[in-house]
Amino acid sequence: MKVTGRCHCGAIAYEAEVEPGSVAVCHCGDCQRLTGSAFRANIPAPAAGFRLLRGEPRRYVKTADSGARRVHAFCGDCGGPVYACAEHDPPSYSLRLGALDQREDLGPPRRQIWTRRRLAWVCELADVPALDGQP
Q1: Beta bridge partners of 5
Q2: How many CB atoms lie within 10 A of CB 132?
Q3: CA 124/CA 24 separation, integer angstroms
Q4: What's the CA gap between 13 and 36, in Å, rounded?
Q5: Cα distances (angstroms) measured from residue 78 to each of 6, 36, 58, 101
Q6: Cβ contacts of residue 76 below 8 Å, gap of 6+?
Q7: What does the DSSP assignment read for 22-71?
Q8: At the N or C end, where does the chain have fewer CB atoms within 10 A?
């Protein structure tokens, strides 16, 4: 499925091919810090189907405890995350679900990783009062 996405301010836009139903959630500490939230939702996109349409993201390279180096690309203007990938010759990009225009069409997450780092309250949101918009 072809998807399009952009950063918050629109300075960076891209398109990619993804497989609906392949959304994943990561609960690791790095993803919590990088998103400023409880977890990160992403979908893989093969490198051959990913194309920048506008702008050039800034890149930050994170070295994991394992020694693996991962590029995190984001907008230099608004800070909006765009993707993550292996540092050299990436086979695929991990696209940020919230930045995709078709995020509702990609289905619910099919897996979660780093659940031992998951915040305890994440699974308890069903009982939290909800509003359809800003109060």
Answers
A1: 14, 100
A2: 4
A3: 19
A4: 22
A5: 11, 14, 11, 18
A6: 11, 57, 58
A7: --EEE--HHHHHHHTSS-EEEEEEEGGG-EEEE---EEEEEE-TTS-EEE
A8: C
Name all domains of the chain by residue range, CATH numbers in brackets: 2-119 (2.170.150.70)
**CA–CA gap between residue 123 and residue 51 (Å, rounded):** 35
**Model pTM score:** 0.88
> pLDDT 10s digit of each residue in the chain, 135 long?
999 999 999 999 999 999 999 999 999 888 898 889 999 999 999 999 999 999 999 999 998 878 888 999 999 999 999 999 988 888 899 999 999 999 999 989 999 999 999 999 988 888 888 888 888
Report the C-alpha gap between 135 and 131 in whole angstroms: 7
Residue 126, amino acid: A
